[in-house]
Design brief:
Layout: H1 3-20, H2 25-37, H3 46-51, H4 63-74, H5 77-89, H6 96-121, H7 125-132, H8 137-167, H9 184-192, H10 231-248, H11 252-278, H12 283-291, H13 301-315, H14 321-326, H15 335-368, H16 379-391, H17 397-429, H18 438-453, H19 461-471, H20 474-505, H21 511-537, H22 545-559, H23 561-571, H24 584-612, H25 628-642
Helix pairs in contact: 1-24, 1-25, 4-11, 4-15, 4-17, 5-13, 5-15, 5-16, 6-13, 6-15, 6-20, 6-21, 7-8, 8-10, 8-17, 8-18, 8-20, 8-23, 9-16, 10-17, 10-18, 11-15, 11-17, 12-15, 13-21, 19-22, 20-21, 20-22
């Protein structure tokens, strides 16, 4: 009843209220995001803001920077060699039919879903789905695991591009892979990979660099005995990781600035190569093969699996990168526009790259007399054998070689630092290494992946790269995409996601799209997952049994977290489950609401007691000097009680 007792009660409840605001780091970060956006009551909660010591979440400098970063991430090396190779192996122009349908039914809806959820929750993919439901935590773990595996060997391709870039400085005007110096195949296998000695030049398919049904295992160098390191490639790999570190050391601020160059420069080179390719005498032969459909291929399930796989690889869905990028957006960014713009630009780039590739292949076919369908079109061979061979015949060949491999560097680095940024975002959201600056964490991640990547720059490294690339992520991506749609459609709620989209992007989603999330996409991806499993098990690429077993272990390493973490809350419920609380967030929220109610009640009591007391009494927010010691004792006792 007296002012002194009311002020002591205010001090006690204020301390309890402030201590209840000390949530886990991930919850504090989300509260700061809501406070910056003016949502809820967090904006006026000065106690919570003072209790948090973590810096606010970084943001893109502008919406255009985010769009350019997404384009740079989506448009990568796969657009330039994987898409043309898939077209070649799956019916030419007929492949464009399942590719387009898969883009419309699966690619663009999941692209929209991941951008929307990342922007809504303001958190990366590793922690995002755990917020939706505790049983969905495996989605983020699976995506980050697949991204980490691919990031390790993807930078090896950048390393090869660096090696070719440096060797393109031919001061005598003759490239080292010109026909007069042995040809592109010899330079690729002997001078670059060191996978076979130079005396085997007469062999069309050297045993140590190629494999098939007639391959004899074990090989040396091979998977079991990869051989010594190729030191020029080790140096290029180290330089590649230094470039990646420079791109991500300051977070989205540095990555966004780099993306303006790495995303736009390849288009200038691509257009120049397209003009040159269309001007070749035999270009029409390749374009006819590329654009003439073979519709009998549409009856083969493998064609649809290849189209869906290319959509996941090229648009970047299912990897956890898109939610991480979107989490750095402003709350009101129009991500719906990006969800259709970026995939359309990406697939248009693939189509243009196909025009360039097949115009060059058509000219080579007319010159050598070998039909296009008898050529060996593979990913690495297309970029480092076919194209160098064509560039060596151009006027001012070293200049075209420098432009081409600079383009490959930009495409590779853009996708690589996006994947590393995804991993670092997951580390930040998990609260790991909060006392270390971003540059130190980025250096540790790059150094670790460089150490693992040394396996791929041995003399048998190409075998390892093909093995990991064939098994690492295909099945996981289909599973992740399907479960994400089920999570939004049935757990989070499709109508709730539509309301969030209307609030953030001011765009209304059609009902058909919401039912697509609930039924169509999960059903299609379930069928594709089964077919992909069958295709992988019956692959024409013959590896020894121990290598196949290792490949399946890699596939399971990225896919198993989804079911394991889904059943974990059921088998091992959290200690607060008996209290009727479903998550630490809800538990902290209820305690926080109770403490806030006590705080408001104590403030009102203090105000009433002060108004009834003497007019000379100090304000409720302060205490007279003679009570300072007593207040310290009360606060110490309160702290002990709360702890």
């Amino acid at each position: 009843a007296c002012p002194r007792s009311a002020r002591l009660w205010t001090s006690h409840c204020s301390l309890l209220y402030n201590m209840c605001q000390q949530r886990p780091s991930a919850l504090r970060r989300e509260e700061r995001g809501h406070a910056a956006l003016g949502e809820g009551g967090a904006a006026s909660n000065a106690g919570a803001a003072a209790a948090s010591k973590d810096p606010p979440r970084r943001k893109w400098s502008s919406g255009a920077e985010f769009t350019i970063a997404c384009i740079g991430y989506a448009v990568g090396l796969g657009n330039f060699w994987r898409f043309p190779a898939l077209c070649f192996n799956n019916g030419g122009g007929a492949f464009l039919v399942p590719y387009t349908l898969t883009l419309l039914l699966i690619g663009m809806p999941i692209f929209l879903l991941e951008l929307g959820m990342g922007q809504k929750f303001q958190i990366g993919g590793a922690e995002l789905w755990k917020r939706v439901h505790p049983s969905l935590g495996g989605l983020g773990v699976a995506s980050i695991t697949a991204t980490a595996i691919v990031a390790v060997y993807y930078n090896v391709v950048v390393c090869w591009a660096l090696w070719y870039f440096f060797r393109s400085f031919a001061w005598d005007g003759v490239l080292p892979w010109a026909e007069s110096r042995g040809g592109a195949l010899q330079f690729w296998e002997v001078d670059t990979l060191h996978c076979r000695p130079a005396q085997n030049l007469s062999s069309a398919a050297p045993e140590t660099c190629a494999w098939g049904a007639g391959t004899t295992w074990p090989q040396e160098p091979g998977i079991a005995r990869p051989g010594p390191l190729v030191w020029p490639l080790v140096g290029c790999l180290a330089l590649g990781w230094v470039l990646v570190w420079l791109c991500v050391c300051k977070g989205v601020h540095s990555a966004g600035k780099v993306a303006w160059f790495t995303a736009l420069f390849p288009y200038a080179v691509l257009l120049a190569l397209l003009v040159r390719g269309l001007s070749l005498p035999g270009a029409h032969v390749g374009l006819k093969w590329y654009l003439t459909p073979s519709f009998d291929k549409l009856a083969e399930p493998q064609v649809w699996v290849a189209a869906a796989s290319q959509i996941f690889y090229s648009t970047g869905i299912g990897w956890g990168t898109l939610p991480a990028f979107a989490s750095y957006n402003r709350h009101d960014h129009n991500f719906v526009r990006d969800a259709w713009l970026v995939p359309v630009i990406n697939c248009g780039t693939s189509f243009l790259a196909g025009l360039v590739v097949f115009s060059v292949l058509g000219d080579m076919s007319q010159e050598t007399g070998v039909p296009i369908d008898e050529m060996q079109i593979e990913g690495s061979g297309l970029a480092f054998v076919v194209y160098p061979q064509a560039i060596a015949k151009l006027p001012v060949a070293p200049l075209f070689a420098l432009l081409f491999f600079t383009m490959l560097l930009c495409l590779g680095l853009d996708s690589e630092f996006s994947m590393v940024e995804t991993i670092l975002t997951a580390v930040d959201d998990a609260g790991v290494g909060q006392n270390y600056p971003r540059a130190v964490k980025a250096a540790a991640a790059c150094l670790a992946m460089f150490g693992v990547g040394l396996l791929f720059v041995t003399r048998g490294g190409l075998h390892w790269l093909e093995l990991v690339d064939g098994y690492a992520a295909n099945l996981t991506l289909f599973i992740v995409g399907g479960v994400e749609c089920l999570a939004v459609g049935w757990v989070y709620g499709a109508d709730r996601f539509a309301a969030d989209t209307l609030e953030m992007a001011k765009a209304k989603l059609p009902k058909a799209l919401l039912w697509n999330y609930k039924l169509v996409v999960p059903a299609l991806l379930a069928v594709l997952t089964v077919q992909a499993f069958v295709s992988t098990a019956t692959s024409k690429v013959h590896f020894p049994p121990y290598a196949v077993a290792l490949g399946w272990c890699l596939a399971l390493a990225s896919a198993l977290p989804i079911p394991l973490l889904a059943i974990r809350p059921l088998c091992c419920p959290p200690p607060y489950a008996s209290e009727g609380l479903t998550s630490p967030r809800e538990r902290a929220g209820l305690v926080g609401k109770l403490a806030a109610s006590l705080h408001r009640l104590s403030r009102s009591l203090s105000f009433g007691a002060s108004s009834r007391g003497a007019s000379s009494a100090p304000a409720p927010s302060g205490l007279p000097p003679e009570l300072s010691t007593e207040r310290a004792d009360v606060e110490l006792a309160a702290a002990r009680e709360v702890r």
